[in-house]
């Protein structure tokens, strides 16, 4: 390997202009790929974080209630006019056991049973419809860390304390320590103390969510001991769908992943990924063709020297190695420069850009880019290298 | 010089034929069944008009080209059915080449060019190999020019580097294709004297293609090729 390496590098150093030009070409290509990938990844992480910051990855709910239709007697035909059943608020059967099962599933990082239902919040004459969310606080906070979004007071529920959204507080003119009257319908009312006010940044949630202790929510919603939803988070958000399918099969309940509930978003992300990959592939292709053409020209230019080397006892395999090494070196060095330039662009974007979002720096991206570029270099060198190896030394020496 | 001692034999051609464009309508036979033997210490000139097949013969002997028929024994080994790798290895170790246009690798220094046959065979050169190459460069009169690149040397100097390179493996057979064709008379004489010297000192057989009657006249033996046949093979005065 030593002699192949030596010849390859000497040849590269001798053809400095050529080497530099192709290096710049590769670097530009790799920089585009690195920057684009980092940009799109950053954008997507940002979008996903904003979306998932306020919702669980998987929601487990009871299956919908359906009309049961008597089987028709044989030989008779039924004409049915069916009106769908209204969906009552129902508890998940044996939700404690379901919770314990989910706790043991691989990939699942947090499981939080909760009870959620409609109610009215009243203060004086003002009336707002709200969503009561009765939670098991330690479990719930692992899914949505509301304590981080508290803008007034503290996160404390239970014993008549509640935490409400900022918009609701504004609508009802409430401050921390004020009393809020909640009406669950059919005369179930209670008065709670506003212990904290949160702001998640999603208007709908900030205007409607009223966090309570599970027990209190259960009594307000007239579902003693019930949990209507189990929220689940997983370690890899893109595995949510698979885990949801597994949960549904395991429990017989309805399990919906964030991907299903945000189908539009997923679709957008996928198309974005696809277009990024397409651009990367075409840039990589042109880089590969660039390497191949430079090396092809180099093989022609060096035909005579290849012939001499062959006459000196250089084997075909060594000759092949020389040009494969050149391809790999082009790929590696070009991608090193390109990765540096790409990171420069990312840093520039983070520092001087519109600052709409931050592009995280994935340390593996340049490593992957370099490995890929080296492989691309070797592959694109294959054709010219084979030509160099198969050159007839007699012809090659005669070549002037 | 014992004429038929097999241990002294370097090269033997047996009915060697070479055709180009085999199997095509343009097929043409260039060498028509040559028989030839070179012994250790032979110093032979190969002469002949252009197109007589000198270069073709030299390429076949140098294992750069394959014969179409017949056999070529190098150091007693039949070579016609050898695969490319073995031919390459044998070429690297047993044969030294000097071409008309010095054919140095521009990217390497004079010293590295001389070391090239050793480096492609065994990798990074050892201290002894480097010393050996240095002394060869000194012997061809290029002491102190080790680190020059070929384009920093004159034509005669470059050709002398090529001679040192051909000798670095201590080859059994030295092939030279018009090694002085490109040089002025003085340089040509010097290069020729180098061949002479190494032929005497190491005993390697030398086969020299030349157009120059002054050079061929100084060889021990003159092989004349006419239209692909050996016309004469005589000892010269």
From TrEMBL, chain A:
Q: Report the domain of life of the source organism.
A: Bacteria
Q: Where found?
A: Cell membrane
**Transmembrane domains' residue ranges:** 21-43, 278-300, 320-344, 364-383
Query: Where's the ABC3 transporter permease C-terminal domain?
Result: 278-393
Q: Which GO terms describe its cellular component?
A: plasma membrane protein complex
The residues covered by the MacB-like periplasmic core domain are 19-249
Q: Which Pfam families match?
A: FtsX (PF02687), MacB_PCD (PF12704)
Q: How does the record classify its membrane topology?
A: Multi-pass membrane protein
Q: Which UniProt keywords apply?
A: Cell membrane, Membrane, Transmembrane, Transmembrane helix
* InterPro entries in the record: ABC3_permease_C, Lipoprotein-release_system, MacB_PCD
Biological process GO terms, please?
lipoprotein localization to outer membrane
PANTHER family of this UniProt entry? LIPOPROTEIN-RELEASING SYSTEM TRANSMEMBRANE PROTEIN LOLE (PTHR30489:SF0)
Would you identify the family this protein belongs to, as annotated?
Belongs to the ABC-4 integral membrane protein family. LolC/E subfamily.
UniProt protein name: ABC transporter permease
Q: Which organism is it from?
A: Massilia psychrophila
TrEMBL record, chain B:
Q: Biological process GO annotation list?
A: lipoprotein localization to outer membrane; protein localization to outer membrane; response to antibiotic
- Recite the UniProt keywords alphabetically: Antibiotic resistance, ATP-binding, Cell membrane, Membrane, Nucleotide-binding, Transmembrane, Transmembrane helix, Transport
> Could you read off the lineage of the organism from its UniProt record?
Bacteria, Pseudomonadati, Pseudomonadota, Betaproteobacteria, Burkholderiales
ABC transporter domain ranges (all copies):
11-236
The protein's GO terms of the molecular function aspect are: ATP binding; ATP hydrolysis activity; transmembrane transporter activity
Q: Name one GO cellular component term.
A: membrane protein complex
Q: What is this protein called?
A: ABC transporter ATP-binding protein
Which superkingdom, per the lineage?
A: Bacteria
Entry keyword annotation includes Membrane: yes
InterPro entries assigned to the protein according to its UniProt record, in alphabetical order = AAA+_ATPase, ABC_transporter-like_ATP-bd, ABC_transporter-like_CS, ABC_transpr_LolD-like, MacB-like_ATP-bd, P-loop_NTPase
What is the protein's species of origin?
Massilia psychrophila
What the record says about family reads: Belongs to the ABC transporter superfamily. Macrolide exporter (TC 3.A.1.122) family.
């Amino acid at each position: 390997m030593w002699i192949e390496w030596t010849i390859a590098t000497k040849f590269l150093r001798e053809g400095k202009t050529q080497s530099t030009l192709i290096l710049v070409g590769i670097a530009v290509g790799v920089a585009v790929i690195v920057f684009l990938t980092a940009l799109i990844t950053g954008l997507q992480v940002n979008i996903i974080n904003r979306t998932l910051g306020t919702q669980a990855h998987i929601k487990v709910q009871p299956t919908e209630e359906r009309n049961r239709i008597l089987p028709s007697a044989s030989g008779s035909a039924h004409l049915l006019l069916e009106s769908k059943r209204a969906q009552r608020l129902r508890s998940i059967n044996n939700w404690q056991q379901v919770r314990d099962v989910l706790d043991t599933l691989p990939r699942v990082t947090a499981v939080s049973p909760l009870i959620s239902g409609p109610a009215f919040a009243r203060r004086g004459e003002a009336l707002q419809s709200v969503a009561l969310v009765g939670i098991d606080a330690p479990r719930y906070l692992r899914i949505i860390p509301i304590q981080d979004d508290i803008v007034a007071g503290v996160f404390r529920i239970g014993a008549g304390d509640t935490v409400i959204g900022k918009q609701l507080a504004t609508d009802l003119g409430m401050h921390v320590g004020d009393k809020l009257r909640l009406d669950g319908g059919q005369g179930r009312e209670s008065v709670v103390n506003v212990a904290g006010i949160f702001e998640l940044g999603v208007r709908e949630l900030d205007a409607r969510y009223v966090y309570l202790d599970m027990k209190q929510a259960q009594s307000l919603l007239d579902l003693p001991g019930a949990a209507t939803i189990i929220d689940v988070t997983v370690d890899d958000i893109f595995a949510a769908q698979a885990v949801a399918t597994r949960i549904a099969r395991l429990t017989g309940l309805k399990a919906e992943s964030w991907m299903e509930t945000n189908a539009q978003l997923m679709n957008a992300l996928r198309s974005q990924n696809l277009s990024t990959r397409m651009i990367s592939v075409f840039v990589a292709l042109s880089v590969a063709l660039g390497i191949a053409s430079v090396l092809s020209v180099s093989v022609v230019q060096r035909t005579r020297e290849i012939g001499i080397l062959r006459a000196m006892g250089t084997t075909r395999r060594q000759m092949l190695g020389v040009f494969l090494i050149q391809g790999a070196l082009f790929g590696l060095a070009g991608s090193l420069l390109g990765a540096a330039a790409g990171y420069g662009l990312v840093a520039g974007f983070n520092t001087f850009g519109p600052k709409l979002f931050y592009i995280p720096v994935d340390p593996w991206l340049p490593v992957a880019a370099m490995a890929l570029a080296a492989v691309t270099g070797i592959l694109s060198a294959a054709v010219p290298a084979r030509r160099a190896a198969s050159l007839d030394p007699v012809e090659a020496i005669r070549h002037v | 010089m014992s004429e038929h001692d097999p241990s002294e034999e370097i090269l033997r051609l047996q009915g060697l034929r070479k055709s180009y464009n085999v199997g095509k309508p343009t097929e043409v036979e260039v060498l028509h069944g040559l028989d030839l033997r070179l012994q250790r210490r032979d110093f032979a000139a190969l002469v002949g008009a252009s197109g007589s097949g000198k270069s073709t013969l030299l390429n076949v002997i140098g294992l750069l080209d394959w014969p179409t028929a017949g056999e070529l024994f190098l150091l007693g080994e039949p070579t016609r059915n050898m695969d490319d790798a073995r031919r390459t290895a044998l070429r690297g170790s047993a044969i030294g080449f000097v071409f008309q246009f010095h054919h140095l690798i521009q990217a390497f220094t004079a010293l590295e060019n001389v070391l090239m046959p050793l480096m492609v065979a065994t990798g990074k050169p050892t201290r002894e190999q480097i010393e050996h190459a240095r002394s060869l460069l000194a012997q061809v009169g290029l002491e102190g020019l080790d680190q020059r690149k070929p384009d920093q040397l004159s034509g005669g100097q470059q050709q002398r580097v090529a001679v040192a390179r051909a000798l670095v493996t201590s080859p059994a057979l030295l092939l030279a294709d018009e090694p002085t064709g490109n040089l002025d008379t003085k340089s040509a004489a010097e290069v020729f004297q180098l061949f002479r010297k190494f032929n005497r000192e190491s005993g390697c057989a030398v086969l020299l293609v030349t157009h120059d009657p002054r050079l061929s006249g100084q060889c021990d033996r003159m092989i004349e090729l006419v239209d692909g046949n050996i016309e004469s093979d005589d000892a010269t005065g």
